[in-house]
């Protein structure tokens, strides 16, 4: 594509009589090349469903038998807690439904849609269809709107989330604390064996409080939508989910497990009691409708990475990969 300067584009002007935009020849040629490159129908048609899923890095869901095969023998009877399909169901109303309190004298802002490439638009369409199908979002007539934000995943692909920075600026903050990492690690000092669990799409397990859905509205090329479940990106989402997981595991925290948002670590002095501890925690998460991601679990290990730190019976050390990144 030929480079075109801002000055050349500045010389473009609207012709009131013809209702056309007059653009200098060189700038027009450059823009024409750009449009051909990005918006060619042939380019759009080449993107198959498989291409979109690769762009999103969507992994096919494991079957029930595959999940059972990944579980240790002493936990196979609790396989239901690891079924990903259960995580796609709309959660029930709870005391922890997410309320978005706005500062007095302020309103949730309306922001314009941001342009995306053809590939990104197809990815957004699939993401919308998936979430509409699950009942996690619905069409909206809200007077506010947040744009979408597409971010690259460390493992490749793209993560789609709503850019709620404008809404967060006018939201009254929830000061519920997150666990201090030092206190968390202190609780592990006598442990010899560990199991690590990860909750699937944790924030989506809580509903937006009834009557507050319009504040979560987000704008896309395909229309205006609002969230029925707590999305990623809201400033109070971490605090509220930490509140919920603490309530769920209240009497077990710092005794047999610790939970930092969606990361749960179970620890014990020996394998016999450890298996009982794991079954207790998994049962609590199942009752709370917090599905566990089998692909991110570690069972009965003597060394694990937790919160960016390697934990062992003899002590802790920094993850060298994290140190190199710094």
UniProtKB/TrEMBL annotation:
Q: Where is the Reverse transcriptase domain?
A: 132-311
| InterPro entries named in the record | DNA/RNA_pol_sf, Rev_trsase/Diguanyl_cyclase, RNA-dir_DNA_polymerase, RT_dom
Q: Which Pfam families match?
A: RVT_1
Kindly provide the name given to this protein in its UniProt entry. Reverse transcriptase domain-containing protein
Please report the organism this UniProt entry assigns to the protein.
Answer: Pyrenophora tritici-repentis
């Amino acid at each position: 594509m030929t480079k075109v300067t801002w000055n050349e584009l500045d010389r473009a002007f609207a012709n009131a009589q013809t209702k056309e935009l007059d653009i200098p020849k060189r700038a027009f040629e450059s823009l024409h090349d750009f449009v051909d490159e990005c918006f060619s129908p042939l380019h759009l048609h080449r993107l198959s469903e498989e291409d979109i899923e690769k762009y999103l890095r969507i992994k096919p869901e494991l079957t029930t038998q595959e999940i059972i095969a990944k579980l240790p023998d002493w936990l196979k009877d609790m396989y239901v807690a690891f079924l990903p399909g259960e995580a796609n169901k709309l959660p029930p109303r709870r005391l922890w439904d997410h309320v978005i309190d706005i500062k007095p004298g302020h309103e949730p802002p309306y922001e314009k849609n941001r342009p995306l490439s053809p590939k990104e638009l197809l990815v957004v369409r699939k993401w919308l269809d998936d979430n509409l199908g699950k009942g996690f979002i619905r069409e909206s007539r809200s007077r506010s709107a947040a744009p979408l934000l597409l971010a690259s995943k460390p493992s490749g692909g793209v993560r789609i989330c709503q850019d709620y920075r404008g809404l967060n600026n006018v939201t009254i903050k929830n000061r519920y604390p997150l666990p201090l990492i030092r206190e968390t690690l202190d609780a592990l000092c006598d442990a010899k064996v560990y199991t690590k669990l990860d909750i699937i799409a944790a924030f989506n397990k809580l509903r937006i409080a009834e009557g507050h859905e319009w504040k979560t509205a987000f704008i896309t090329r395909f229309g205006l939508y609002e969230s029925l479940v707590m999305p990623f990106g809201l400033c109070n989402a971490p605090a509220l989910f930490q509140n919920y997981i603490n309530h769920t595991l209240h009497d077990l925290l710092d005794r047999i497990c610790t939970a930092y948002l969606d990361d749960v670590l179970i620890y014990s002095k020996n394998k016999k009691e450890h298996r009982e501890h794991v079954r207790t925690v998994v049962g609590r998460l199942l009752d709370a409708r917090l599905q566990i991601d089998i692909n991110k679990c570690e069972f009965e290990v003597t060394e694990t990475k937790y919160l960016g730190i390697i934990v062992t019976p003899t002590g802790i050390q920094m993850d060298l990969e994290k140190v190199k990144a710094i």
